[in-house]
Amino acid sequence: MKSEPVSDVHQTLTDPEVMRSFPKIELHRHLEGTFALETLHRMALRNGLDFPTEFEGFQKLVQFPVDSEPDFLKFLSLFHNNWYRSLDDVAEIVHDSVADLVNDGLTYIELRFSPEHFADHNGFERGETARAVMHAADAAARETGIEIRYLITFNRSKQTQEQMADLYHLLRDLEEPAIVGLDLAGDELNYPPELFGDFFAEVRGDGIYRTTIHAGEVTPPQQIWDAIRELGANRIGHGVAAIHDPELQSYLRDHDIVLEQCITSNYQTGSWADERNHPLGALHRAGVPVTINSDDPSIQNASLTDDYVKAVSYFNLTMEDLVTLNERAIDAAFLTDAEKQALRKKYQRAVTGFRSANKL
Catalytic site residues? Predict the structure, then answer.
């Protein structure tokens, strides 16, 4: 295959329209921050919520301003759970949101969601709610050809570990094979990993699900160590603080523990204030397993594609780097070895098609 000069390839990969079709594997995206905004607007008006009737005004109220300074509290204030009046509402927004993923070049996604988010305001039954979410998402995934699995999010600042255990038992008894892992999210500063040791010990003992723990996003590297040692984390959500601890970097390399990193999100929340020097580039160069993820794209008013363009622009990543990052994501996916092998072949075919279409 004829190769182009590096500068031409770099320019091609920083074109958002080209990058949008680059095949991507994503491990860290919250459904609650991934909503199809036009559908959400219609639902808000239909259900009598106090939002502008004009879409542009609605959009300004539910998205983080693109040119705003980092503001963690403002970021969190944009998450609402009162949109829904029925499980049909839940299914509608989930279907349309997952259907949109194909426009970001997704080949495979592990989409995380909290049944509590969708159920709490109206007192929906949690197991029924989880099934409604997954069935709607599955339908959209089939329509678009995306492969999808689910991670259940537990919020450390809103649930005790006893409440987590109750929800876990309920979801475990559903025996839904598409649920492949559990996610611990929420306030890292005030709810450290050691508060949830008993719950995650039970999860490890059952051996049904793997775990990803938000750690080292706004806390020091020690919390990443604690997430691994105290909770048995298989992956780490964000983990930007790993850049400050060479010993931790070696451990992550040696044990193939992937950091699910999110450039735009980390800037907006203030966890890493300089996007151009985000740790993802340096950690990747050091051989630490990292992946590129979007986190909450509809809240952020930024797509996964935007983060890929930033990664190429800021860290001078090559096509080979991007493929390596996605193959690491496949290795870290909560799938069986046979499923990973099939996904790797599917991904490689998609990359070959992308190269051919863009003469790369």
Answer: 217
